[in-house]
Amino acid sequence: MTEVIRSAEALREKVAGWKRSGALVGVVPTMGALHDGHLSLARAARSQSDRVIVTIFVNPMQFNNPEDLKKYPRDEAHDLALLEADGVDVLFAPGPDEVYPEGFASKVSVTGVSGPMEGAHRPGHFDGVATVVTKLFGMTQAGRAFFGEKDWQQLQVVRRLVRDLNIPVHVIGCPTKRETDGLAMSSRNVRLSAAERAIAPALHRAMQDAARAIRDGAPVKAALDAAQGAIIRAGFATVEYLDLRDAETLEPLQDLRAPARLLVAAVLGDVRLIDNIAV
Ligand code: AMP
Question: Can you tell me which residues bind ATP (predicted)?
């Protein structure tokens, strides 16, 4: 049975009991509308911790666009059934007032890695992420936290935050789960029309082609320009960024130096998709 907990105080009591018996607690922070990508994190948590908490909180502070927040898919009953099937101990699903009570006045802000790409295109997004993740670490007291490589920049922001603030949690990055046609699983994919869904895998294909060309020695700019052209020709409205960057510092790279990462954000219809791969 997965127990649903909505208050930080009830969660604290639950976790204190686990810790008295020496259990290692793992947490998987999510915004719900769970898919196999999220469940792969829950399974990693299950295999690397004694107790597993999955959190579902659609965090208003990390949405720079109110429309996006309003349209964000929510289906807690379905999510709970999936978590139950995977043996998750607790679903922590606090309401906005539990996370941001009257008078809330703090903000966690990570500089550097949160500046470019998502940081530049979604002002305030990573402050929202860093703040809520810090709170979730405090509320869950977890020793291990599982994040997807799907959100590569977010993973680097969380790693930086944990190091900088001496938060006693071990951050574990998990590989991106994809549909069989290569599209990275995302809660936002349900908002794609059938026609858009057929176009969407072109994003990953263009990334793979660019990564291969760069590995084979093509000039980085030429490879990125070709990929950008392919994405637009496939039917995407815009490419917000398509960059080759140092995988950890996220500094832009003009030539290939390992470890490098190719990262993209592109808009299809009114859905913004992000993806990244190792080069
Ligand atoms: P979200 O609910 O989108 O905020 O995502 C919650 C966590 O699931 C984050 O750590 C994401 O990186 C991770 N995640 C989302 N999609 C995938 C995926 N396709 N594969 C692996 N992890 C994912």
Answer: 31-38, 148-151, 185-188
User: Is the domain of 68 the same as that of 96?
Assistant: yes
Q: b vs e for 147-171, b when ≥16 Cβ sit within 10 Å of the residue's Cβ?
A: bbbbbbbbbbbbbbbbeeeebebeb
Residue that terminates a domain, selected from 152, 174, 196:
174
CATH of the domain at 266: 3.30.1300.10
C-alpha of residue 38 to centroid of ligand 1, in Å: 5
Cα(259)–Cα(169) distance, rounded to whole angstroms?
A: 24
Q: What is the pLDDT of residue 232?
A: 98
* pLDDT score, position 258: 78
Which residues does the chain have with pLDDT short of 50?
none
12 & 38 share domain: yes
- Which of 38, 121, 125, 170 is catalytic? The answer is 38
Task: Find the residues whose C-beta lies inside 6 A of ligand 1.
Answer: 30-31, 37-38, 40-41, 147-148, 150-151, 174, 176-177, 184-187
For residue 212, give its domain range: 187-278
Radius of gyration of the chain (CA): 19
Does the annotation place 173 within a ligand binding site? Answer: no
> Which amino acid is present at 16?
A
List the residue whose alpha carbon is closest to atom 6 of ligand 1.
30
100 alpha carbon to ligand 1 midpoint, in Å? 23
